[in-house]
Amino acid sequence: MESKTVGVVIPIYNVQDYLKECLNSVINQTYKNLQVVLVNDGSTDENSLNIAKEYTLKDERFILFDKKNGGHSSAKNVGIEYFSKEYELKNITSDIKENSLIEFSIEGNNPYEIYKVYKSSKFFKNKDGLLNFKIPDIDYIIFLDSDDYWELDCIEECVPRMDGVEVVWFKEKVLIETHVDISTKTIFEQYYSNKTVISKYEWINKQLSKDDFFQFVCFGMIDFNFFRAIHLKFENNIVGEDRIFGIILFLKINFIYMINQELYFYRIRDNSTCNYNSAKIQKYPKYLNDFFGKCKNIERHIGTYSCLKMLMILIQYCESNKKNIKKSELFLIKKKFLPSFYNRVYKDMLKCDKIPIFMKISFFKIDFFWLEFCEYSKNKLFFIKINNNILFLLIFLYTIILRLKMPIFKENHV
């Protein structure tokens, strides 16, 4: 019995060659009680939006948002906000015509500049149904990238295992479609040890003994009531947002169910957002192109900027949860995640040819926090423990001088 409703969020950007395979894997799921949000993030190719409309028209479980380009984070946030009932939809279409798309607009606050919302006429039985359209309630939420696809029993395997856990985490199959040499070993494989349910603290202990890289978005299902309660969304205006999203999510959960089955097909291809080519900056969302397009190495600049923002989120998490963070969590953040982000930003920022002034100011704050919060750092500057205020002040002044020497942008920051 399919008593639980699963909300599916699929961001779409220039994926006309892959989108049908993705959406076919959704509509053909053996578990049918789905509500599917497609978010076209300003696609500029010929057919991505048309394909999304085609599938929305033929499946009444689908709803399509067409918005200004803002990046994967903003597209996924649209799905979250829709299911959280943060939008007021006003119907533009007054009459229901058979086999047509009903159009809606967003009333009131519209931060992501959603142009139109589309829903199949098949969903509406009469005009009253159209005028009184209500956003559906969901029990669980799951994300799917539009150049990837699911096994047809993916949702059916996940739903029964959601009982008593906040997250179900499944294994992915990596599909390499690029000339770049990339390992196919998944993060899931580093954590799975024949135990189906693990606690947050077991995850922390495993993380301490593994590589410090961790990410999670599409490879699992999340309890939606829990998800809303922790007020977690995706950070806008960055790439690699699945890393900080996964870290914060797993720091807040209690239990994870691990399914050792390849239920997700993860495609790594040239010129995707996560495997970008610095020679083709148009693959980035417009806000990043416009801001960093003048730099010699757009990949390094965008990576540094994104990593800096994620580091600040992690620091904010520590500061706002000082009383609630247990020692094991604090130790993980201190030993693994903070050094990872900090060292990446520190090393890459020195190689950037131009740095926005707000990034410099942010880094001064981070330096201060770093010296105060951490007993040591892998960074070459900070092997010595900070034992007195004089040494603290000298090192902090040195970092300020170092930052000030970097050339800056004069433009407003993104």
SSE order and pairing:
Layout: E1 6-12, H1 19-27, E2 34-41, H2 48-58, E3 62-67, H3 72-83, E4 88-91, E5 101-107, E6 114-120, H4 127-131, E7 140-143, E8 149-150, H5 154-158, E9 167-177, H6 187-191, E10 197-199, H7 200-209, E11 220-223, H8 224-229, H9 241-252, E12 255-269, H10 286-292, H11 298-320, H12 327-351, E13 355-356, H13 357-373, H14 389-404, E14 408-409
Parallel strand pairs: 1-2, 1-7, 2-3, 9-12, 13-14
Antiparallel strand pairs: 3-6, 4-5, 5-6, 7-11, 8-12, 9-11, 10-12
Helix pairs in contact: 7-12, 9-11, 11-12, 11-13, 13-14
Structure characterization notes:
- It is a single chain.
- With 414 residues, the protein is of the alpha/beta class.
- 39% of the residues lie in helices and 20% in strands.
- The protein has helices spanning 19-27, 48-58, 72-83, 127-131, 154-158, 187-191, 200-209, 224-229, 241-252, 286-292, 298-320, 327-351, 357-373, 389-404; strands spanning 6-12, 34-41, 62-67, 88-91, 101-107, 114-120, 140-143, 149-150, 167-177, 197-199, 220-223, 255-269, 355-356, 408-409.
- Strands 1, 2, 3, 4, 5, 6, 7, 8, 9, 10, 11 and 12 form a twelve-stranded mixed sheet that branches.
- Strand 2, helix 2 and strand 3 (62-67) form a beta-alpha-beta unit.
- Helix 7 crosses helix 12, helix 11 packs antiparallel against helix 12 and helix 13 (357-373) runs antiparallel to helix 14.
- The longest helix is centred in the last third of the chain and has 25 residues, at 327-351.
- The model is unreliable at 273-282, 375-388 and 407-414 (pLDDT under 50).
